[in-house]
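check these tokens.
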Amino acid sequence: MEEHFRTTEISDPQFETNNLRFITVKAKNLKGRGDICVFVPPVKNAENLPLVILLHGVYGSAWVWSHKAGVHRTAWEMIQNKEIPPIVIAMPSDGLWGDGSGYLAHNQKDFEKWIVEDVPNAVIQNIPSVSTTSELFISGLSMGGFGALRLGIKYAKKFKGISAHSSITDIAQMPLFVEESTKNYEQEDERENSVLGVLEKYGGAIPKLRFDCGTQDDLISYNRELHAALEKKEVNHVYDEFSGAHEWSYWGKHVKKSLLFFSSSK
């Protein structure tokens, strides 16, 4: 197998718990190390399992989806109940730049390619139940929702499905959360700065798409605008609103919708 990283560390099974594994690789796109928390279901003789890349929001890191929302427990319970087939979930850091990297290329680092290239390669290299033929899905919350929508559309040939929660839809919304200037995130082609811009630029067929937002969330108006724009463009998608704010109780509950959606996308 081709080695994509100069150095790789993976947790020792004798110390792991709750079906979580931890990987650290030195990635050229980050010009340093990146962390990935991986849920691996304890299924015997599993091969070519689907891989879900689950992105965190601002202030977070590789551990937050598991240790603030318990997504690994949710996924395992759903697998045991046969609500979804066995899947592997990769929860990478965003590259740990500032309050949040935006999953974009900037400041001499490519946080975008870290997600779409390095993370799948790191999982394939270290987790035997995932391979180059595994189906790939992407999801996330807030800034991670922006990453999931933007990268899922831009790299449509890589992903089979996209699901986002409480999403930022344009980098102009980043100052609602981060102290870093928006100029850090601005791309040379301004279409790359928003979900709709990326759709306009890359167009064509996109993966199966859904997103949702809480009705008490400060980002609700932006999500409604995105939904309306997608409807106007006749882009097939699912949009849901639920009671809730920009908070972990919302994401921990509704990430189930992403896992069910990905299961139905097979």
Notes: The first strand starts at residue 8 and ends at 10. DSSP finds seven helices and eleven strands in the chain. The chain has a mean pLDDT of 97. Residues 248-264 form the longest helix (17 residues).
